[in-house]
Amino acid sequence: MALKSLSFLMILVASSLFSVSTAFDGRKALAPDAADSPSPSVDWGFVPLNTKDPKVIELAQFAIDQYNKEHNSKLVYTALFEAIAVSIPQGTKYGLIVAATSPNNELNDYTVNVLVDTNNKKLVFFQENQ
């Protein structure tokens, strides 16, 4: 689980530093300001969250529901393993490790990012962990 935690943090940081451009057929491209990013010794401001907190669980369930809508999928929320938050100019970005069950009863875990501002929630990243 420690290895997944490290990869989760790396994905969350990378998703903050990289953007996807359709000009490159969806391949990752450095964001224009990524070269000016702080060095790794800087406090990134990540805050660990309680995975039993109903509000955090609701974000995990939202992520699964939103993914299902966007991909015509039928994943079922099962558990929340990890949760962190970081404040960014657009709001608060939540990084979650969520377990979900597929229609054929396969249990998988997913790295998820949800952006929350004062008016709405948006699923910004969803990937099955290998």
TrEMBL record:
It holds the Pfam family SQAPI. Gene3D superfamilies: 3.10.450.10. Keywords: Protease inhibitor, Signal, Thiol protease inhibitor. Residues 1-23 form the signal peptide. Residues 50-126 form the Cystatin domain. Transmembrane segments: none annotated. It comes from the Eukaryota. This is Cystatin domain-containing protein. It comes from Rehmannia glutinosa (Chinese foxglove).
